[in-house]
Specification:
The chain is an alpha/beta fold. The chain has one domain. It is built from six helices and twelve strands. The longest helix is centred in the first third of the chain and has 51 residues. The radius of gyration is 26 Å and the shape is elongated.
Length: 286
């Protein structure tokens, strides 16, 4: 009696079917390729988002120039808050409100109104600003009006920042809150532009304004999204890998910044502080 010879399993159509082992090998190869390619794809996406964000900032710079042309050479302030609202005037205007007319078909009339431009304007032009579409709460005022960019308010740096006490004594900040008797002033583009190649004005930020400490430490000062006492309100991790911690972010250029000569570049937390304060301040390096 002759022993039977095993034969390959044949599909009814006459073609040989894959065995379970072969399928597992193919799946394993595909998983390996995904693991190899995914970091590269994620990096490419971050780079694309960075470029789109920078493009939006350049359009915002054009709006600053248009504002300057219309208002006799002055730039908007970061915040303009009146003691009370009037029927034809909101209580608070922010830089986004003042620039919206140059970036959209209709001008915004205060912080509440600007929300109608959400996701349809370069004012929300950073695709890496996830708060624009993730965990967004329509009933939260901050979520509605914050657009992922902030304006710094130290136009005359490196002069020490001073808060005015009245309209006659306005101080030198581009931030005016008459409701709290905290006065500043509108400043001309020509003054903002002194050493403009090194002076930042708009940057990736969770808040609508960018404030800083008067001194800076490369190793201990904090920043968004790692915010505690002594922070700088610039989102220094936005264009970096999600896995980066505060220490890695300190050494990396992860935020886009628009400078007062119109160029946009990525900056580290320390570079962001220097560009915001304009130099001339203590830079501790422990």
């Amino acid at each position: 009696m002759t022993a039977s010879v095993p034969t390959a399993r044949v599909h009814p159509t006459g073609r040989r079917a894959f065995t379970l082992v072969e399928l597992l090998v193919v799946i394993g190869i595909i998983a390996l390729l995904i693991a190899i390619l995914l970091p590269s794809l994620q990096k490419a996406r971050r780079q694309a988002d960075t470029v789109k964000c920078a493009s939006s900032m350049r359009q915002i710079w054009t709006a600053f120039q248009n504002y300057s042309n219309e208002f006799k050479g002055y730039f908007p302030v970061a915040v303009l808050k009146f003691p009370t609202a009037l029927p034809d005037r909101p209580q608070e205007m922010r830089w986004q409100d003042m620039l919206s007319r140059y970036l959209t078909k209709n001008a915004a009339n205060g912080a509440d109104d600007i929300t109608k431009f959400r996701l349809n304007s370069v004012l929300w032009g950073c695709p890496a600003w996830t708060k624009a579409y993730q965990d967004y709460d329509e009933n939260n005022f901050a979520d509605r009006v914050r657009n992922g960019y902030g304006m710094q308010y130290y136009p005359m740096a490196p002069a020490p920042a001073t808060v005015g006490t009245s309209l006659a004594n306005p101080g030198n900040l581009a931030y005016i809150d008459m409701a709290a008797a905290s006065y500043g002033q509108f400043v001309k583009q020509s003054k903002w532009g002194v050493n403009g190649v090194n002076r930042g004005i708009i940057a990736d930020s969770i808040t609508h304004i960018i404030g800083t400490a008067a001194t800076w430490s490369r190793s201990t000062r904090t920043f968004q999204p790692f915010v505690t006492t002594g922070n700088i309100y610039i989102d220094c991790k936005r264009h970096l890998p999600p896995s980066y911690d505060a220490s890695q972010t300190r050494k990396s250029r992860g935020a886009n910044m628009l400078f007062c000569d119109g160029h946009v570049t990525q900056v580290s937390p320390t570079e962001a502080w220097i560009a915001t304060r304009g130099g001339g301040h203590d830079l501790t390096t422990p």
